[in-house]
UniProtKB/TrEMBL annotation:
InterPro entries in the cross-refs: Anth_synth/Amidotransfase, Class_I_gatase-like, GATASE, TrpG/PapA_dom
Stretches that traverse the bilayer: none
Protein name: Aminodeoxychorismate synthase, glutamine amidotransferase subunit
GO biological process: L-tryptophan biosynthetic process
NCBIfam families recorded: trpG_papA
Organism: Aliicoccus persicus
Coiled-coil ranges per UniProt: none
């Protein structure tokens, strides 16, 4: 049984992600909000950082906690979580050209770990005003929109991943597949 820590950044989408994860065999989920992390005593095999409002710089509690597990367990950041991973390693997170909430975009990916055996292009649902931009020395961009917006990242040396879009959204294709691929990474991790 793999125990996943879900960091709930006060977002209504968090429980949609949890519902998907509950359908995967061999997974137990524990849920903590940022203000509870300092008192957490449980052990876990992987971390998922949920979507949420605000800029990553406004979440030092979450980023500090995640940093303390860097290289110890696999990590997946979704939306705000994706931006946090980019930001805490020196990347820029800034306002996009316009807010995108509930819009479907096609992404193209590089067939890396979170995209294995998935179609080269597929539709995802975006809910964000901020985006990870520019370059980052620790991460590779693994998926982009047709207009070249960073939609997914992976760390160059560690099992740490981020997706800007919402895999749990009803109009996102292959979201359940991607969460199952992350669980497989957690189960196979030797960290």
């Amino acid at each position: 049984m793999s125990k996943l820590l879900m960091i709930d950044n006060y977002d209504s989408f968090t429980y949609n992600i949890i519902h998907y994860l509950e359908q995967i065999d061999g997974v137990e989920i524990v849920i903590y909000q940022p203000h509870e992390l300092k008192d957490m005593k449980e052990s876990f095999s992987g971390i998922i950082i949920s979507p949420g409002p605000s800029h990553p710089k406004d979440r030092p509690d979450t980023m500090g906690f995640v940093e303390s597990y860097w290289g110890k367990v696999p990590i997946l950041g979704i939306c705000l979580g994706h931006q946090m991973l980019w930001y805490m390693t020196g990347g820029d997170v800034q306002r996009g050209d316009r807010p995108i909430h509930g819009h479907v975009y096609t992404i193209t990916h590089d067939n890396s770990e979170l995209f294995q055996a998935l179609p080269e292009c597929f539709d995802v649902t975006r809910y964000h005003s901020l985006e990870a931009s520019g370059e980052n020395s620790q991460f590779e961009v693994t998926a982009r929109t047709e207009d070249n917006v960073n939609m997914a990242i992976r760390h160059k040396h560690l099992p740490i991943y981020g997706v800007q879009y919402h895999p749990e959204a009803i109009l996102s294709n292959h979201g359940m597949d991607q969460l199952a691929l992350f669980v497989d990474i957690v189960k196979g991790s030797a960290l």
